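User: For a reading group we're discussing how well predicted structures match intuition. Take Fe/B12 periplasmic-binding domain-containing protein. Before you show the prediction, I'll give you the sequence so everyone sees exactly what went in.
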Amino acid sequence: MRKIFSFILTVLMVCLCISGCTPLTGSSGSGSAVKITDDNQRIVTIKKIPERIVVLSPSFLELVEAVDGKVVGRAKTQVGKVPDFAKDAAEVGFIFNINVEKIVELKPDLVIAYKGMHERYLHTLESNNIPVIVLNLKSYEDVKHSMLTIGKIMRKDDKAQKVVANLDKDINATVSKLPKSERSVAILHTTSMGITMEKETSIAGCCAKMLKLRNVVQGETKPVSGPMGTQPDKAPYSLEDLLEKNPQVIFITSMGAPRDAEGNPKLEIMSNPAWNSIDAVKNKQVFFLPDDLFLLNPGLEYPKAVRYMAAKMYPDAVKE
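Assistant: Thanks. Here is the predicted 3D structure of Fe/B12 periplasmic-binding domain-containing protein, as structure tokens, for the group to look at:
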């Protein structure tokens, strides 16, 4: 009887050891599969650690590199610079006009697409058995979420968490230097088509919120249309409304607008006498924001973007 009991116990121990060594979904083993729910609520199974990644927005490049990912293809853009580690990656068209055939030729084992921009390519890519995840990358919280998601895909969760912790640390270091008083802000976005206002969900708006600035159009619900459809991070602009709200600080981003000799956007409203009556203008608190940090998502450079805005308002407290 004792021998039978010992035999059964031995069998159970072997079974437990085998089950304990079996990779589970979402674990960090190189041979395990992970299931990702992307920002379009699609469940995507990544069967192995990707070795050939294509990113459809340059904003994802540094996130992939931070967890040792290998980028073999990238979309082009006229904004910002390509990091050295990605310069040899093949170009797969412009961010707004992707060359799907080129992607297929690269035989990637993962494509990272930008939410609201690349959904029309999903069917073709997936029909070629290419896994695609769609990530949103607008706000700072989006960056942290995307970093953790890519870290999970690469089975580098711990490394991704350290990156996120360092981002928080850097931003908190900037915010801690600022005065406690709240200031109002207006963020103008200029293009060749006209001017709109940016809400807290825009890149600049998100940075301003972290700097405790009160956005004067945050409650605005009137929609703004653009080339890609409705733009929920924008609000309509009118000089009359701006005069009424009278912001203490004005930041300006620009895409395709005419520039002056110093490279700043030429704004007709600045020649209007009423412009000079706004508090921000009278107190020389009007600042132009650089394209590489505020047109495309700055990704892991978010602390730099926050620091840039803070340094413009409080140069004695914060250095760029």
